[in-house]
């Protein structure tokens, strides 16, 4: 392990009561990109009533030579603080386009794939240009791409976000707000920016109390009044699914249906899902 150095970051881990030295160096990100240590897993999103897969979310993983499999929670915050999220995020977009193209070329069933985009990545001047380039390079229909942004990414500069999202949606890209309800929750931004879907933060769904469910019901109603698709995240039990269906939540995602899986396994899930149709 590398010691000290100016590029070592200490992160406070809630619950650990101490500062944990992740000793993840900027140098690691550079090598990870060069050596192709990053890879994606795909988690299906399903229609709440029928269970048919409508799309999937691409989730980043890191095959680290010393640490083994590293999950995004352990390195995305560091990548965001150091700016490495920009090249890493670009790699994710390119990899999703490459993967979709590979599925298409193999004659496999394909659904829209959602990519998580960090605020810093979205706020870059050339964000839209880069997305366009990646789609064109792999000849992928923009309707097969979705971007997930947090409220934070949008509210910092609503006017600029409105323009960028307008351009993306004009191309046919789907836009959703991730972890909705736990960010700024400045509800006024919702009708000012063009979005297609709200992804309800999983804390609302996993909270058993009446409070969490009331907020959730209110958000579903709000989404529907604004003509948005509402997606419930983090569905782990049949009971949670039943409640979401009862509240007319449109789509759901969670371990109850499937964990995020490697591309090859996702293709099998998708093949099984289309047969049900
Ligand atoms: P997110 O975008 O909200 O993604 C959903 C997270 O919830 C994923 O964690 C997923 O594995 C997890 N999840 C899904 N269903 C369930 C469930 O039923 N129960 C529980 N307990 N968890 C569930 P993951 O893969 O560890 O990713 C964590 C976060 O890291 C993501 O949250 C996203 O904010 C970020 N992230 C992941 N990939 C990327 C990426 O390519 N770029 C950027 N900028 N951020 C990413
Ligand atoms: Mg997401
Ligand atoms: Mg989320
Ligand atoms: Mg998130």
From TrEMBL:
Residues 22-274 form the EAL domain. It comes from the Bacteria. Transmembrane segments: none annotated. This is Diguanylate cyclase (GGDEF) domain-containing protein. It comes from Alicyclobacillus macrosporangiidus. The chain holds residues 161 to 437 of 437 of the full protein.
């Amino acid at each position: 392990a590398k010691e000290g150095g100016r590029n070592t970051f200490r992160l406070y881990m809630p619950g650990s009561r101490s500062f944990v030295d992740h000793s993840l160096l900027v140098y690691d990100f550079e090598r990870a990109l060069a050596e192709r240590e990053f890879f994606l897993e795909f988690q299906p999103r399903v229609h709440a009533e029928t269970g048919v897969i409508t799309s999937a979310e691409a989730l980043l993983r890191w095959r680290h030579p010393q640490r083994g499999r590293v999950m995004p929670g352990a390195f995305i915050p560091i990548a965001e603080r150091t700016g490495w999220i920009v090249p890493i995020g670009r790699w994710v977009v390119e990899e999703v386009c490459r993967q979709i193209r590979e599925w298409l070329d193999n004659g496999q069933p394909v659904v829209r794939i959602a990519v998580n985009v960090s605020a810093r990545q979205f706020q870059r001047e050339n964000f839209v240009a880069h997305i366009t380039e990646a789609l064109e390079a792999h000849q992928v229909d923009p309707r097969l791409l979705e971007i997930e942004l947090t409220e934070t990414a949008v509210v910092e500069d609503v006017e600029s976000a409105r323009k960028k999202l307008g351009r993306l949606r004009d191309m046919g890209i789907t836009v959703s707000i991730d972890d909705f309800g736990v960010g700024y929750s400045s509800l006024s931004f919702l009708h000012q920016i063009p979005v297609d879907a709200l992804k309800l933060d999983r804390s609302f769904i996993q909270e058993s109390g009446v409070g969490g469910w009331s907020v959730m019901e209110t958000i579903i109603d709000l989404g529907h009044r604004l003509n948005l698709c509402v997606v419930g995240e983090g569905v782990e039990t049949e009971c949670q699914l039943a409640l979401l269906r009862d509240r007319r939540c449109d789509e759901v995602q969670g371990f109850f249906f499937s964990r995020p899986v490697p591309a090859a396994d996702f293709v099998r899930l998708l093949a099984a899902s289309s047969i049900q149709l």
